[in-house]
Every structure is written in C-alpha cells, then in structure tokens.
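TICKET #2291
ISSUE: user wants both folds in one file
ATTACHMENT 1:
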Amino acid sequence: MPGSHRRHKRLLARVCAALATTGLLAALLVGAAQAGPAEDFYTPPSPLPAGANGDVIKSQPSQYSNAKATRIMYLSRDAKNKRIAVTGTVIVPDKAWAGPGPRPVVAYAPFTAGMGDQCAPSKTLAGESSGDIAATFQNTFVDSLLGKGFAVAQTDYEGLGTPGEHAYVMRLSEAHTVLDVLRAAQRLPGTGLPTDGPLGIMGYSEGGGGAASAAELASSYAPDLDIKGAYAGAAPADKAKLAKSLDGGLYVAFLGYALIGINTSYPESGIVENLANDKGKQLFEAARKTCTIGAVTSYMFTQSSTLTKDGRPVSAYLNQAPFDKIVAENRIGQAKPSMPVLVEHALLDDAIPYENGKQLAKDWCAKGASAEFRDLIAFTPVGAHAMGALSASGNAANWLNDRFAGKPATGNCGKF
C-alpha cells in the first residue's frame, strides 16, 4: 500500500474515532435505539390528497429527549414543481420559551445522512432504524436549537424514507422541502406553536446547501413565511467545482450521491445509462442503499474515470449538454435572500472547499443581501469538515437567537 494511502487510512480512523465519541454522547441524550417505526407511515397515500404546499398529510408521535416530538408527512414540490410527499419531525422542547414574542420555529436542514431509507433523519433522531454513527451528529444541531427554547422543524428531504431516490443537493427540491416543513410545523395541531410566528433556517454541509437554497428562494416560493434569519455552514454551492475536488478523495461518495440526485431530479439526463460503465452502474445500485459512513469507507479514493464508459472523469462532462444547464440551475447564489444570512466555512475543509462558502457570500453581497461571512473554527485540521460541525451548531443557534431577540444583523460585505 503506498505511503499516502496509509496516511489517508490513518486520518480516516482518527476522524471516525472523533465521530464515534460524539456519537456516544449524543446517544445518551436520546436513549437506546428503539424498534423502527411502522414503515407504512412512510408510504404516501395514492393519489396525494388535495392541499397546499406544507399541508400535513399525516402525523404520529415520535420521541426525543426533553421534548414533544411528532413525525409528519407533508406536501411539497420536487425540482420540476411536481407535488410530492415528504417526511420529517416537529420537535417542541419541554423548556419554556423565555424570549420576546411567541416561540420561534427553526427549519433544520440535515447534513448528509445517506441515500437509503433507513438513514432518514426522522428515524435516526428518534433512535430508530439503522443509520450510522454520523447520524448522531444530527442530534448535536437539534440540541443546540432546543437548548435556546426554539422549536425544530426537520425535513427528510425528497426521497429519504419515502419512496423514490433522494434528490441529494438538488437546489430546488431541497429549498422547497425546507420551506414547506416550516409551513407544516405551523399547521400541525397540538403543538402550541403560532401559525404565523417568527422562523429561522439552519443547516450544515448538505444542510448548508438546503438552508442556503431555501433562503434565496423564500421570497418567491414562500413569501408568507416570516423568516428572521438563515444560517448556512459549509454549503456545497458550486457543484462543478465539487466534482473536481471530491473526485478520488476521502469523500468521493458524496460525488456519487450527487449523481444519484441528478438522476432523480433530471431523469431525462440519462446520467446512469449514458455515462456509467458496468462498474459505475453497480456502484450506483449499491450506493443507493448506504448511509454516510458506510459510503465514505466503501468508496474513498475511487476515481470517477474508472466508472465512466469513455474513461473521462465526471467533471469533464459538466460543461456539455445537458449537464451544463443542470449544474447552472443548481448553483446556489443566484438570488438575493430576503432575510439576513450568515455563511460559515472552515478554511481547511477537506470535503467542501472553503471557496464554495466564501463565493456564496460574495454572490449574495453583490445582489444587495444582508450577508455575513465568517471563518468556521475546526478544532483540528484532520477531518476539518466533520469537526467544523461542532462549532457550527452553537454558532448558528447563537446567531439565530440574536435575530429572534430583534438585534440587527451585522453584515460584512466588502470585508472578506
């Protein structure tokens, strides 16, 4: 084994050890794993009922420590504006809201959970199903919000838990599902939450992309929502650049996930049929069933050129039809957010390059947004993407708390 490969293996072991430590702590907060939920909850009625975006189709009690949790299925829209059913969780802390006005609700856009239905955050947050250690990081973000007294509206996104494939990092689909889970939380009976109260958005990694997409599409898709601020950490804003930086690296599985996302939202692209060789098709089939850590460890350091029919890397296809238009449509930073936004990114992020977050904030500044960009502190350069999540969870909750308290946001456009 080459020396560089051995070093990468050792680095991965250290990152996984850190993940495991955090996972054990989070597991103590939610208790031991329980039997999985009745899977028929995740099967939408056919046809879908009439209703507006964000209407609750069905709900059932879920579980979360020191909170009232409700699993929900709600109406939303995919990338082609087709009506879909999406699942998630509404979590209201037992802790009383001590701030001004009614209790705020924050949409939590989860980071990469995986592609298999067993990875759906509405299952793993409740201690159900068979996700992996990375899933317990989701609890860290939720706990930071509940600790401030906020209610949490968590989406599973399109195709996680529910039938079909997950539309991984697809801008329109994820924006719709994040915004509609806020509507669902406001309309869910028995929560004590206001129907028109203050709202926020928070996400990291894939969730940073989902949060950022929701922030910039809120004024056109959900102008009825009173969103006070949106936090986007380590957002995968530019998929074309990510196709190069992920290829052959530790997190190349995320590139595979993105291709599945494209195949889901843009089936006419024929990305699997036209690009993938037999090995690539086999990888696609296997990856569809994985959660995060399983995918990372199974596919790390794979070169995408070994998976295509003509031996070219995936990045070589993205500037030609039909992929050029798909990549352009999914670039985040195209519209001005109507609320204050905070973008954070670790300088040594080893999964999503730092320039993705910085350029996103610059793009929003150029459109006149109230935007702030900060370097995110990662406690170690090893696994900086995963370690940055620990800082991001607290930073996001504190920043949103200031927005709900009525403190003015301090943008720093032109200073980074």
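ATTACHMENT 2:
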Amino acid sequence: MSVAAWSCLQDVKILDLSQLLPGPHASLALSQLGADVIKVEQPNGGDTIRALGRNAFAQLNHGKRCIALDLKSDDGRESFLRLAREADAVIEGFRPGVMERLGLGYRALSDANPRIVMCSISGFGQTGPYAADPGHDLNYLALAGYWAIPAQMEDVVARPRLRVSDYAAASYASLSLAVAIMSARQSGRGQHVDVSIHDAILAWTAGSAWSAKCAADAGLCTPGVMPDNDIFATADGRHMVLGIMENKFWLSLRECLGGDFPELLSPQYETRAQRQQRKDEVHATLKHIFASRPLAAWEDAFHGSDVPFSPVLHAGELFDDPHVQARQVPRSLDENACLAARFPVKFSAGLDDVSARVASIGQDNDAVLGAPVWPSRTGPV
C-alpha cells in the first residue's frame, strides 16, 4: 500500500548505514512520509541497538528492508555502490573519516551518482577540534549548556529520561535531507549534509543559555524559573505538573483552590511580578498544598477547571490515556504486539502506516541485491 501517494518523497530511495538512534530515527521519519528506506547492517550483530532487545530495534526500524553487507570487503563495497547509483541519499553515522577509509566517502558516492545526497550524522560534525572525539547524548548535552539553564526552584543536575540531543539531530537530519533530496532532483547535483549532534542540541539550548549568561548573577531570580510552573509531589508519592505562565491561569488556580487554601488568595501573589519577587514562599506554599492530598484528589479538584494541571503518568498509564487513544498515536508492530508511535503530524490528505514488519539482519539481501533495479515502493515488502 502506498504510504502517501501525494508525498514528494513517494519515490525517494534512501540507504541507511546508521545505527542506534539519530540516523535510524531520521530515516524512519522519512519512511513514514513516503520514502523507501533500506537499512544496511554489518553481517555480525547488525545495528548495535539490536543488542538492547527486539523492541528497541523495532521502534526505530519497522517498515524498513534490511540487508547485511561487509563494507570492508570488495564485494560489499561494490554491492553498496551499485545500490547507491539508484539511490537518492545515503545516511551514515560513523566518526568523520570512516566512510573515506571504506572507499565510500562523498566523492566516491558522487562519482557513482552525481545527484546523491550523503547525510553524515556525527557527535561533533565533520570539522572542528572535537570532530574525532567519542561521545553520546549526555556528552553533547553537557557541552551544549543543557544544565547551564536554570529551570526549577529545586533544580538538580540529572540525566534526562530521553536521548534529547539525539532526537534533536534526527529532526534536523530528516528535514535537511528532504530539502537536499528535492533540491538535487531539480539541479541534478547532490551534496554532503554535515549534521552535528552537538550543533543540533546547541541550536535548542542557545537562546535560554544566553539568557542565563546575561542573568548569571540572578540565580533563581532569573525570569525562566517560576514557582508556579513546576513539578510537585503529592501525598501518595506520585507527581503532578502545574504549568502556569499567563497570569489568568493563576487566577483560575486561586478560584479553584482558594476556598480550601486561602493563602493562595493573598494580594501579594496577585500578579506574576509579585510572585516572582516572592518565589521561595510561593513555591513552598504550593509544595505544601500539593503534598497534602493524593494525586487522584487533585485530578478531581482540577477536573473541568481552566488550570494547566497534568498528572505525571506512569508507562503503564500512558498508552491508555483517552487523548492518546483518540489521536491514534500508538500502533502495534508485527506478531509481538510491540507498540510504536505513528508519525506525529496529521495530514488532511492522509498518511497511511508504514509496514509493521521488523526485519532480521540480512533478511532482504536476496530481494534487494538480486534485483537489477530498485523495487517499487508499492511492491511487496
């Protein structure tokens, strides 16, 4: 079935050499939008993420055809170049210089196919003093000032629950690839797209980090730290979020809870500026209030109100959330009923799911490498 017959990516062909998260997430997004992605893995072990379990691999690689090639061998290189002649793009996630040592750098790919786009996703990019350095998500976050940005009244330096910088790089990579591929189809000339994971997360942190630099002496007085926009513990050990920014939401909170907690009605808390001047006492007041009742009681108290309140959901609760269900975000993959997320944007023209199939290492070698031309997207997978 066609994923998106209207999509300009419908007949785009992509070879994905990348592993773990950034490259596979970028190619998954392009696949969900209509591109045909072939995942190229090493014969022994495949993508490193396979070692983390079938679910981890499936989340990022469902719907892709998978082949295994030894790119250090002459036969493997020749097979890859033959595929590259018919492809629109190659995604790779090695350290700078590895593709050149394999004889598959941008110049070699361009000689084989002048309109090909090569997207290199690396920790620090292809140039610069850190280019050859190893790293993973936490390293890039640390160097991009992620923890330099004040965020909470009781702030701590702790690892994020997601690989934030990896997802940032994947987003920029997929966007840039789509533009570069379409541009190459117009001009007949491809290009080398250099995606630095560090650059990508720095693009996200730079604005807030600069504000923090300019207010370096302010500490918790910086405007970005708000006593009523935070996470609070409840009496039963759960947590809830209060997302007040506009003053109208404080007034809604006061209207909702002021009868039981008259301290919220203090005229000293009337405006955002007043609350910012009394951050410690406002935060302490809210912390004490929310610790006095279990989460379910706060869900009842805020139900139907105009207060930006949210419970912090457990993994077991998330997929049963009625809004998640109504938006049809999760979908099942293959026979193991592993859940993955659909492409998160709704198109009025429609966007069908990519195949739920999760291929094993080299499962599609015969179909892909034995074919004289690239199979049609609408053919069997």
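RESOLUTION: both attachments delivered.
EXTRA DETAIL ON ATTACHMENT 2: Residues 239-311 form one domain.
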